[in-house]
Amino acid sequence: MGGARTDLGGATLAGMRLAVLETVALDDMRARPAQGFEDAVARLARAGARIERFALAEVAEAMGLAGVLFTPEAYAIWRETIERAPEKMFPRILERFRSGAGVPATDYIAAWRRLEEIRWVWSDRVAEFDAVLLPSSPILPPDANRLMTDDAYYVTENLLALRNTRIGNLMGGCALSLPTSQPSCGIGLMAGPGQEARLLRLGAAAERALL
Length: 211
Fold this sequence. Notes:
- The chain is an alpha/beta fold and about 210 residues long.
- The protein has 7 helices and 5 strands.
- Helix 1 links the parallel strand 1 and strand 2 (about 50-55).
- The protein is globular, with a radius of gyration of 19 Å.
């Protein structure tokens, strides 16, 4: 807020080191998002970026902490607003928010302490890269009508739709998404906290390569 506008002039991918995250982020990929992602990675490489791939088991562990971390925080912040008119909230989302009330403070604190340790591991592992690449979402936009009538479909699609952006949230960095050759399929670029300006320059160069 209030900072100078990022200068995007002269941004280039030449010599940039970009890492494809293989842990969790590529699981259960549908065909078109996978095609769009791999095509985008290839285009970035042709534009001069050095592409590497890496795995990090701690990412999967962090994802397992999300339920303990997010729901109690969300309910604590929005509880009064929600409970004044719970009928205004989509029932499945209301149920998820309210589940946060049952998380013990000891579990919440322990999960945050462990996540902070994982963030240090993540930061150390990705420090050599200019950005981490992952599909913005492993799925296409779900069928809205089916979401309302098929509980199993709702659970599966909802979890997958939110999964890869959740990785960025858990790791505490910044991210942007760019379109790929496949409609409604994006490629995400992630960097560390406070690196928005550098990521915007990288994103400008990547956007030209993906056109």
